[in-house]
Specification:
The protein has 258 residues and is α+β, with helices and mostly antiparallel strands. It contains 8 helices and 6 strands; from the N terminus they run αααααββββαββαα. The protein has helices at residues 7-12, 15-20, 22-43, 50-60, 68-98, 148-157, 180-217, 223-256; strands spanning 114-117, 120-123, 128-134, 137-142, 165-166, 171-174. Helix 5 (68-98) runs parallel beside helix 8 and helix 7 (180-217) packs antiparallel against helix 8.
């Protein structure tokens, strides 16, 4: 069977083309060589890769194409960013849960308390040692006793609903037992916080998929690539959804336990 050469090959050897457009001639000659090599590879039973040839032609014409390494790096950055943001969401949900008292002494309920210290708002645990001498009380011992009044005010102004006992050296907090109605009320608060965490996780997933679709529009990923990556991302999303559900169930159990 006779070999048929493409028009590009014939154009590349035309004298007029060589003399009138030397820059284009070089690119066309190189393209012709690539096509010829492709035909030789096919005749020898070796699979040619048009994508490689296409990219190589662009390189010779001065158009730089993204390398496989660069595309992989972009994909990895998207995946890593999504995981980091989801992990941060889990930490925020857990922190919110810890700030809700359950009837037992837990220093974490003071984590969000900010104190005005020399004109600057700082977190309470950065200027005081917080401990639980027993199951029904919390002890706050400031490193600087001059901050006692500010700490006391911050606790009173918070939504903890607790009255601090300031003896001039330390502040003691007695943890009152929760009523049944209060437990149910707090359980609803926790459920809302858990749902907000899930909404945040789904939002992160959408952002990542948009980033994948952007790479598809830039011809760096195929439609199938995006589908596969989206499926993998859904597995990660499901994983973090389960984490939120797990810590929610645990907190709810603590709240409803009498």
């Amino acid at each position: 069977m006779a070999t048929t050469f493409s028009p590009i090959f014939y154009a590349s050897i035309a004298p007029k083309t060589r003399t009138s457009f030397p820059g284009l001639q070089n690119a066309l000659s190189w393209s012709a060589s690539a096509n010829y090599a492709k035909l030789r590879m096919a005749a020898a039973g070796v699979s040619a890769k048009p994508l490689f040839i296409k990219h190589a032609v662009k390189e010779r014409l001065g158009v730089r194409c993204a390398t496989l390494e660069e595309i992989e790096a972009e994909k990895s950055m998207i995946e890593e960013d999504a995981r980091e943001r989801m992990e941060k969401t889990i930490e925020n949900v857990r922190s919110s849960f810890n700030s809700i008292r359950t009837g037992r002494a837990n220093p974490a309920i003071l984590d969000k308390i900010e104190v005005e210290y020399y004109g600057t708002p700082v977190v309470l645990k950065s200027i005081a040692q917080i401990s639980t001498p027993d199951a029904s009380s919390i002890l706050v011992q400031p490193y600087d006793k001059s901050s006692l009044k500010s700490i006391e005010k911050a606790i009173i102004d918070s939504d903890l609903g607790m009255t601090p006992n300031n003896d001039g050296d330390v502040i003691r907090l007695s943890i009152p037992q929760l009523t049944s109605d209060r437990r149910k009320e707090l359980s609803k608060v926790v459920a809302k916080q858990a749902e907000e965490g899930k909404v945040a996780i789904r939002s992160i997933r959408r952002d990542a998929i948009k980033s994948y679709e952007k790479l598809e529009k830039e011809k760096k990923l195929s439609e199938d690539n995006v589908k596969d990556l989206s499926a993998d991302l859904q597995k990660v999303t499901d994983e973090y959804m389960k984490k939120i559900e797990s810590i929610f169930k645990q907190k709810e159990k603590e709240l409803l336990k009498v």
